[in-house]
Amino acid sequence: MPGDTDIATVGALLGDERRCRILLALDDGRALPASRLAAEAGVSAATASSHLGKLREGGLVTVETHGRHRFYRLAGPHVGRLLEAMVALAPPRPVTSLREGTRARALRRARTCYDHLAGELGVGIMRHLVDAGLLAGGDGRRDPADPPVGFGQDVDYRFTGAGDAWLDDLGVRLAPGRRAVRYCVDWTEQAHHLSGAAGAGILARLVELDWVRRAPKDRAVTVTDAGRAGLARTFGL
Question: Tens digit of pLDDT for each residue in 134-143?
Answer without folding.
Answer: 999 988 888 7
